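Hey,
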Amino acid sequence: MNSVNPLFGGQGLPRQPGALRQVTRTVTQRRHLGVAETPPPGLDDVAKVVQMCGRYASSRSRIELLEEFAVERDRVDEPLKADYNVAPTKPVYAVMTRAARQEAGDSAQPDAEPKPARQLRVVRWGLVPSWAKDISIGSRMINARAETVSEKPAFRKPFANRRCLLPADGYYEWQAAAAGTKGPKQPYFICRPDHGVLAFAGIYELWRDRSIAQDDPAAWLWTAAIITTTAPDELGEIHDRMPMVIASASWADWLDPANTDAADVRALLAPAASTGLISYPVSLAVNSVRNNGPELVNEAEPVSPGSGGSSNA
């Protein structure tokens, strides 16, 4: 039984775009949406968190993820629909490894199976620390910087033994209009050339609603944050930060709750899958989280001259 708070309530991959622009190509220096900038026009309140990564796509079905990540325990009660415009506070899939006896509020399974097992769960994007008075802080804690995640009070405990993977098709970024021109910011989608899954490094936490009995699964809210890192040169031209991607060979070590040595865990935070990613312009429709569908990740004509386009490296 899934212990997801009632605050939370597959489709296949979209068609591959035509000409794609390789991120590794040398391009004109660009300015993108950063922590000190203004959100793109039309952004709804739920997504007014100007960070990296602040929006991504996750279209794979529960069944696909169970197979792709070799999940041993399915903790999803109600599968999520494909989401091509994931924004802060939305429910998302997360892969984690937990022992049965660690599962808060799961009275149906006591300590019968203490061996750690890989799970698929639904969590809320935006980490709510266990000590928080309410869940509102979560909308501001969607990201954790790799450089300080082991030190910050809200992140160091989950980084030690509550790490997860957040499956994604890719993520969005915005480019400002060329100098001397006017126009809206151009959204781009960044993903693998084959549109394969990206496993974002994440940390998760459990927050208890003390107005509900502890043994009630609804008393526990599961939340998560995405770890970000400095982008290498080929991606730094797009944005100076990027989601940390964990290579499949390191999934088991990253998810292992017994691995609590901060130095060992930090060693796993190497920017995998950074080179070879592609980006291409997409429609302004992605600016509003009210819009959702596979057309959002389709390549589109740039919205204004100087915004840049797509090409093969």
